[in-house]
Amino acid sequence: MEVKNANAAMLSNYEVFKLLTDLKEQRKDSGKNKHSAGQQNLNTIMYETLKYLSKTPSSRQTPEIVREFLTAMMPHKLTKAEKLQLLNHRPQTAVEIQLMVEESEERLSEEQIEELIQMVADVLPADPEQENQAPAEAEIEQS
After folding, report:
1. What is the pLDDT of residue 27?
2. Calpha distance 121→102 (Å, rounded)
């Protein structure tokens, strides 16, 4: 196999999750042989990647959510890589935005940073693990 263009496109975590989920279903339906060492390594990588991504907000995203998020980001003049990081990591604080947006102190005002945080919270689904912890914490407080 030869790589024609290594930088053809960057994939979001949602796209990788969807691709691997679809591939897993195809392999399950076709009953592929799993005996070769290379095949076992590929299966392990797929399993570990799916396990990790299923615990992130990307597992709950849809193409419509991604489209809506990218449309909402247009006025902020962010690079594709910065938008991708925001989409993948779902920042919740100004510090996280500063880590993802290059030279954010010069390019974004405090109001714009707060606006970005609010947009991320409004448009992107929450982290599944945080949502599972919230009901448990509420039950503890009620006791």
Report:
1. 81
2. 21
Token code pair at residue 95: 């510090």
Whole-number Å distance between alpha carbons of 22 and 31: 14
Q: Please count the other Cβ atoms lying within 10 Å of the Cβ belonging to residue 43.
A: 14
In this prediction, residue 51 carries a pLDDT of 92
Q: Give the pLDDT confidence score for residue 103 in this predicted structure.
A: 87
Under 8 Å between Cβ of 73 and 83: yes
- Summarize pLDDT for 82-117 with one digit per residue, the tens: 989 999 888 888 899 888 889 888 888 889 889 889
SS3 of the chain: helix, strand, coil, percent, to 5: 70, 0, 30
CB 100 within 8 A of CB 82: yes
Tokens matching residue 70 = 């990218």
The three-class DSSP label of residue 109 is coil
CA-wise closest residue to 120 among 136, 101, 138, 102: 101
